[in-house]
UniProtKB/TrEMBL annotation:
Catalytic activity: L-aspartate + L-glutamine + ATP + H2O = L-asparagine + L-glutamate + AMP + diphosphate + H(+)
Name of the featured protein: asparagine synthase (glutamine-hydrolyzing)
Pathway assignment: Amino-acid biosynthesis; L-asparagine biosynthesis; L-asparagine from L-aspartate (L-Gln route): step 1/1
PANTHER family, per database record: ASPARAGINE SYNTHETASE, ASPARAGINE SYNTHETASE (GLUTAMINE-HYDROLYZING)
């Protein structure tokens, strides 16, 4: 449960809840909040704040430490008082005082304010029935148990349609959930509930201009190292036996090495998941880092019992699984860390989004039609990276072939965009640039050319499904007129800074990490999620981030002398396509009972398209993009089928 609350705006009395010995009860005439003590202990590096005011004017006082409280306020012990509502707002906006959840209840006017952390590390779901009640919780299952809403909730077909669309993974996280009437608070925002309405407000705002006084890679690297170390330190406060997920990638390796600098004498365990997939094999990097920091290196073999793990995790989440890989992948890491008696498991999630790669530098050159500079930088990208996703024999290619593959891939994506969104005139113009400046048309060595790019696109569309939904989006909208569009509190200036981190895939994964931590009664921490660190990364110019094509140059600079050079300067990343494909087919074999003709999943998924996706995935050879899309379709269909079955 973690925590849940309900407040009424009408005259109907609430039954007094039973408060268990492992819980704290905050009970008022119009509502109550119940909090598990283990949640407060587990979230000790963040803060759960609860305040109430009887007259709206008196200060909010911290009267009792939560370990001794039965009724009253809950505050982190270091906070002694809240002077007024402005002070409340100042606290939740303080980037040096990151919160997980903050709640303000005013008994005089019945107003309720709830704020969610900047990165959504703790879920916050709610139901608001005007002139009746507001209920909220850290998990959907707790809301589903409320008697008042059992008769009004139903499955949200629009959310399901989006869930089955790969293109919706990177869109900004919205308030809609898989249930009508149950919404999610968007990270970095708070909602003010009154009897007849609710109002969204952004409380977390970023100001990258405060770093305008620095402008060199060395300076950005030093600031990054300072702020990143502070974030890791905060995660490790009070922890003695340290655990860290260590894939061998740049992010997890940076977390592990900095953690060891902070805790030089602590028992230290690192965990690597073995996929038995050559393209995903980073074991040698993981072992090199483990040896450098003198940590016990554990190799975890994910369970092959995918379906049972999926069923169990779906029950925990109350929503369909979101992670792209088998659910046994993350579960095995957490379970082994707990069995090793670790006090914490550190991860490198979501370093890619927080740090930024600098790819927008290329986009800016494209938008400015600076073709010659773009060609130079794409050549740098080809020389300083390993693109095994474009050719598994990348290191065996000539420099010219590598460059042409990068040119082709870059323009292929923009040609698709042109075909879908721009005028025919712009499309022809882009073809001319690709031909005359980048020589794509005459490049026979990579078997492509503009004609081949168009042929590949047409062939992909005709031979494999590019969608799997049973109905079009318009049909779903027309059939569900009462379902609102996914809501997102729009603030263009702030959205410019948050869209790179507050997208659906990332925040849903955060919510799943939270549920897994609760299930295993274990602390999981993501040091890259730090408001000050993210604000700094926003300030780093794209050109500096790009780093002549290697990307994330400010992080690499910060890790000089800390990471092994082979890891700090590595340009490639693990490719999990084969592992994901194998686990998806295994899940299909194990999950056939959920795919019978009477399964409710076929109310949302086109059965013929699904089985076509399975057949394509069963072939020995597929284009990497096709394989990725078919894996997505198979996984999402089975994830959805298991969830729909759990609702019976």
């Amino acid at each position: 449960m973690s925590f849940r609350g309900i407040f009424r705006f009408d005259q109907i009395p609430l039954n007094r809840p039973v408060i268990k010995s492992n819980q704290i009860g905050l009970i008022y005439s119009k509502g109550h909040v119940i909090i598990e003590k283990s949640f407060l202990d587990r979230e000790s590096s963040n803060t759960f704040l609860f305040f109430h005011s009887k007259d709206g004017k008196q200060p909010f006082q911290n009267t009792l430490d939560y370990k001794d409280v039965h009724y009253g306020n809950v505050l982190k012990p270091s906070i002694t008082s809240i002077e007024n509502i402005d002070h409340f707002n100042d606290l939740i906006c303080d980037k040096n005082f990151p919160i997980s959840t903050a709640i303000l209840y005013n008994e005089q006017n019945g107003h309720l304010e709830i704020a969610r952390s900047a990165f959504g590390l703790v879920p916050l779901f709610y139901i608001h029935v005007p002139n009746q009640f507001t209920a909220f919780a850290a998990d959907i299952k707790s809301l589903l148990q409320i008697q008042e809403i059992k008769s009004i909730i139903s499955v949200n077909s629009v959310t399901i349609w989006n869930y089955l669309s790969l293109t919706k993974e990177g869109v900004p996280y919205g308030a809609n959930t898989f249930f009508n009437h149950i919404s999610s608070i968007i990270p970095g925002q708070k909602i003010v509930f009154t009897s007849n309405e609710l109002k969204n407000e952004i409380y977390m705002r970023y100001n990258p201009t405060k770093w305008d006084h620095i402008n060199s890679l060395n300076e950005y690297g030093e600031e990054f190292k300072h702020l990143f170390s502070k974030s890791v330190q905060r995660c490790l406060d009070g922890k003695n036996i340290i655990g860290a997920q260590l894939s061998g990638g740049l992010d997890s390796s940076s977390v592990s090495t900095v953690a060891r600098l902070i805790k030089p004498d602590s028992e230290f365990h690192v965990f690597y998941s073995e996929t038995h997939s050559p393209m995903a094999n980073e074991k040698h990097f993981s072992l090199e880092v483990a040896e450098k920091i003198n940590a016990s290196h554990h190799i975890i073999i994910p369970s092959l019992n995918d379906i049972d793990t999926l069923i169990r995790h779906t029950e925990l989440y109350g929503q369909p699984e979101q992670m792209a890989l088998s659910p046994t992948f993350q579960g095995g890491l957490i379970q082994n860390a707990k069995e090793s008696n670790c006090d914490i498991l550190l991860t490198g999630h979501d370093g890619d989004s927080v740090v930024g790669k600098g790819n927008d530098f290329l986009n800016s050159l494209f938008r400015a039609e600076n073709w010659l500079r773009l060609k130079i930088e794409l050549s740098n990208l080809a020389r300083n990276n390993n693109f095994y996703s474009l050719d598994q024999n990348w290191n065996g290619l000539t420099d010219i072939t590598k460059e042409q593959l990068i040119y082709q891939n870059f323009f292929y994506k923009r040609l698709i965009y042109c075909l879908k969104n721009l005028s025919f005139k712009q499309y022809i113009k882009l073809i001319a640039v690709a031909d005359n400046v980048f020589n794509i048309k005459r490049t026979k060595s990579v078997g492509a050319g503009i004609e081949a790019l168009i042929y590949i696109l047409q062939k992909k569309i005709s031979s494999s499904p590019n969608s799997i939904q049973k109905y079009t989006y318009q049909e779903i909208r027309e059939g569900n007129p009462s379902i609102s569009e996914t809501t997102r509190f729009i603030d263009d200036k702030n959205a410019e800074f948050t869209d790179s981190i507050l997208f659906t895939q990332s925040i849903r994964i955060n919510e799943e990490y939270f549920a897994l931590a609760r299930h295993y009664d274990f602390s999981i921490r993501h040091p890259f999620y730090d408001p000050n660190l993210y604000e700094l990364c926003l300030a780093v110019p794209q050109l500096i981030k790009f780093g002549n094509g290697i990307g994330r140059a400010h992080l690499r600079k910060a890790m000089e002398g800390i990471l092994p050079e082979s890891v700090r300067t590595r340009a490639d990343k693990a490719i999990f396509n084969t592992y994901a494909k194998d686990s998806a087919l295994r899940l299909f074999d194990q999950g056939r009972d959920f795919l019978v003709d009477s399964s409710p999943v076929w109310d949302h998924v086109d059965k013929k398209k699904f089985f076509l996706a399975v057949r394509i995935l069963q072939r020995k050879e597929q284009h990497s993009g096709t394989q990725h899309l078919m894996t997505f379709f198979v996984n999402r269909t089975i994830f959805l089928a298991v969830w729909l079955y759990s609702l019976k």
